[in-house]
Amino acid sequence: MSRIVCLTVVLCLTTLSSIAQPILVGTTATNSLHIGSGGRSIAVEPVGSVQLVWQNYYDWGWSQRQAHYNAVENGNPWFSSEGVVVDAGIRSGFPRLAVSTSGFCFPAYHSQQSSSSPVGTVVACDFMAHAGAFSNCMGDSVPVLANRLYPRVAVDSEGDVHLLCCDYTASEDMHRYFYSRGTPQYDDGFLNGINWTIASVPNDFGPSQSVSTGSDIACSGDRVARAWTASTPDRWNTPYAFSNDVWVQFSEDRGLNWGEPTNLTMFEMPDQECFDNGTNPICCNRDTLRATPDVNIMFDADSALHIVFTTLVYYNWESALGEAGFYPMRAQIWHWGENSGEFSIVSNSWIDGPLPGIGSLGSYRTYVEGPVISQDSSSGIFYCTFTEYDTSRYSVMGGLFNADIMVSSSTDGGDSWSVTTDVTPTVPIINPVPAGANLIEQDVSVNQWILDGWIDMCYLLDVNGVSGPTDPLPLNQIYYETVPVGMIQPTPLIADQDLHVGTVEECLETLTSGEAVVPE
């Protein structure tokens, strides 16, 4: 793939001249491309062809939307700036994709096929590789999975398609996850359907009581892994979308049989007896981290699983560190590796205390969020890409903070991570920023393999900073961009931190010594 080097400054005070020119691949009238985990919405083939999907809202009333597709080769989009519509239904959205080794794209999304049909998950098939001519590949054996939403999709080494989605009804916010596996059917080089051999199996792989839509699926050889976030109760014993543990489960035979589900994080609940005894509530809070519905996974070159996820802070009781409740500004990103079985922190740059100015993160966002993990196929170095917000700049209309895309790297298999590098250092000149001039890069997705020394990513550029429908506004852009790995410095490393607190006694000893107790 040819790389075009950008030497200009566009709508910002600073830029990095070694980053390739962003390529416009689509537009949308929304400031959010997904709910819960981002999954993968970009894939790059070894020959260099890039395939992308996104959710295209056509108007700021948010009433009309479709899943769209585009491809890029040699720096040029294959289709117009709007791409092509993936779904033939009347409404669809939240697409993710997987691409086979032969270049066939399998977008997965939820869709309404007609005005009388329910909303459900669909996997589409491209008639030819890179053709952008898609058809519904659910078929008679697995019809559109009614009320199954927010799909994640992967393709294994044999070319089979693995699908993970969750159910949803308007009357009940609790979700169960569903798994399916299918074999694509080819005829003289054309893709004409999928034979679903494991069809819509409800979750027997962990807790079903989840208000979270955070999940992901990955394949390597015969190994398949699925990870999800499941709710932990708050002090009112009520599940909350931002209060979760991270779970994982493995199959060693391409999804036919599954091992026991494992709760990786196992956050310790608040100690009521400790509190009733009058012990300092800082120590009685126990673990004050909770996982958000924000998890991404991949198998490395040795078929070991890696998971990255986001946490925020939760206090069960008021304390010297803050009042009871959830703190989205105190967000962190973590990594877990199958080989070590240990957690390491990727980003710990949170904000303590009151927010500066009058800006906000908006609904269901955290100060850092949306981590995506990838590995350099040559060096073995891992990269974690995510969004971080800038509280010094905010929009006039919606008050939303500016945001940039950050990358951290690990040269030791994920055990430690470098201080992050801002790869989209765009700073609006005017503050507060008027509609159309915001530079909020967010909802980033990255190809899981770093090829030829470049990070291939796509993201939403929110130019309006408005979290709800407002007319008239310019459309937001979907960009494809490449970043050279040489920009991401391997050092200095960020300070390590424990995911869990120690015992109550250890906490009390720390308070007696005068040391600060950092929420963990």
Polypeptide structure, described:
By secondary structure, the protein is mainly beta. It contains 3 helices and 31 strands. It has helices at 272-276, 281-284, 504-513; strands spanning 23-28, 42-44, 50-57, 65-73, 76-77, 84-85, 91-99, 105-112, 119-126, 134-136, 145-146, 148-155, 161-167, 177-187, 190-202, 215-220, 223-231, 244-251, 262-263, 289-299, 305-315, 325-337, 343-347, 368-376, 382-394, 401-410, 421-422, 440-446, 449-450, 454-462, 476-484. Strands 2, 3, 4, 5 and 6 form a 5-stranded antiparallel β-sheet that branches. Strands 7, 8, 9, 10 and 11 form a 5-stranded antiparallel β-sheet that branches. A 5-stranded mixed β-sheet has the order 27-26-25-24-29, with no helix packed on it. The protein is globular, with a radius of gyration of 22 Å. Mean pLDDT is 87; it is low at 1-18.
Dominant shape:
globular
Low-confidence stretches: 1-18
Cα gyration radius (Å): 22 Å
What is the total tally of β strands?
Answer: 31
Concise structural overview:
The chain is mainly beta and 520 residues long.
List the helices and strands and how they pair.
Elements: E1 23-28, E2 42-44, E3 50-57, E4 65-73, E5 76-77, E6 84-85, E7 91-99, E8 105-112, E9 119-126, E10 134-136, E11 145-146, E12 148-155, E13 161-167, E14 177-187, E15 190-202, E16 215-220, E17 223-231, E18 244-251, E19 262-263, H1 272-276, H2 281-284, E20 289-299, E21 305-315, E22 325-337, E23 343-347, E24 368-376, E25 382-394, E26 401-410, E27 421-422, E28 440-446, E29 449-450, E30 454-462, E31 476-484, H3 504-513
Parallel strand pairs: 24-29
Antiparallel strand pairs: 1-31, 2-3, 3-4, 4-5, 4-6, 7-8, 8-9, 9-10, 9-11, 12-13, 13-14, 14-15, 16-17, 17-18, 18-19, 20-21, 21-22, 22-23, 24-25, 25-26, 26-27, 28-30, 30-31
